[in-house]
């Protein structure tokens, strides 16, 4: 299961389990954060629907901005959660810690800072330059 991972990186099964637990914990945190943000968004909608009497353009604009911010937060949390889900899948498949672009190992320091990283620094920089 983690043969590619343990042989090539020297990562033990215990290390892989520690990584899995860390990734799963962060995924669970993001799931709880998402549920909380959904509840706050629903409360915001209820307040918005029930409190429109006497709204002027500024009030309308503020409510729209708040709604957009809440939706943006939800999308961001879902995106981050999907990154951790992908990292967990890669760990299970044995490809965690390897660049999806060039197949080189991703430096441990990068994974410590950004555990859901799927590319090495070089490939990430190349992709960002192409996108600019």
TrEMBL record:
Keywords: Coiled coil, Metal-binding, Zinc, Zinc-finger. Residues 13-40 form a coiled coil. The keyword Zinc applies. It comes from the Bacteria. Pfam families: zf-dskA_traR (PF01258). Residues 94-129 form the Zinc finger DksA/TraR C4-type domain. A zinc finger (dksA C4-type) spans 99-123. The keyword Thylakoid does not apply. InterPro entries: Znf_DskA_TraR (IPR000962), Znf_DskA_TraR_CS (IPR020458). Signal peptide: none annotated. PANTHER family: RNA POLYMERASE-BINDING TRANSCRIPTION FACTOR DKSA, RNA POLYMERASE-BINDING TRANSCRIPTION FACTOR DKSA-RELATED. This is TraR/DksA family transcriptional regulator. It comes from Micromonospora echinofusca. The lineage of its organism: Bacteria, Bacillati, Actinomycetota, Actinomycetes, Micromonosporales.
